Amino acid sequence: MIIYHADDYGISINASKEILALVQQGKLSGISVIPNMSCFADCIDLLLPVMKERPALTVALHLNFFEGHCCADPAEIPLLIDENGYFKCSWMYFFKSSYTSARNELRKQLSTEIQAQIQKLYHAMPSDYVLCLDSHQHSHMIPVVWDALRDVVLWNHYPVQYIRISREPLAPYLSTPALYHTYPPVNLIKNVIIQFCTWYTKRHPIIPMKGNYYLWGLIMGGSMDADRINRLMDKFQKYGQDPDTLELLFHPGIILPEELSPEYNNPDFKAAETSPKPVSYTHLTLPTNSLV
Known about the structure:
By secondary structure, this protein is α/β, with parallel strands linked by helices.
């Protein structure tokens, strides 16, 4: 199965409206909701009627430990936040801490925050909602974060429909030399590290997975434009043959300058999310098994 998914719903009102417009056009199979921004309640009010109109839409929790304010009691998670309750840790801090003496305490505090974020989304969703999980910057794939998530899901016996496995095949990229220069080196490095993390998640599964789960959107993150997608689609499609799943990941929403506030405390993220997005999958002919 091939699915088309947008992350960062709930990052701002404008970004969320733009994502919902694509849902209503039948361009998305699913969205991921950030639970910890100040606009969360307003974004949920916009989302719930659309969920009724499009019951096949997948709504996932987009765990976030990098932007905005924590959902847990700040006193319980001092390793994660600054004096204002805003997240302060980097992706590499979590990764490195997976192999240091800080691991156990960090795992405990991450579990506390994960539980708070899950509960916040649960309380906002319809009573029949089944949890789906992924994360901002694919941080749930980091070993210490994965273990914290595993603790929360198993301890609370949460039914979980799926957890994104951020495993992106390299073969389609390697077989297309003409596009080599278009891939940001930092994304290639992220891919290598997350491939390593995938090995850890397979050894410590949280839920049974039917088939293999593949992602397309990490190396091309921020530049999933129609031209490159069309050039690579034939090479990626085989990864979406049943029982496997291929997820095409996009970040189509834009934060307006007037929406910015201190909760957008990462300069790189702020620059990326206020920049125009590339013309992308809105101009593609989507496979019928991907539409909602």
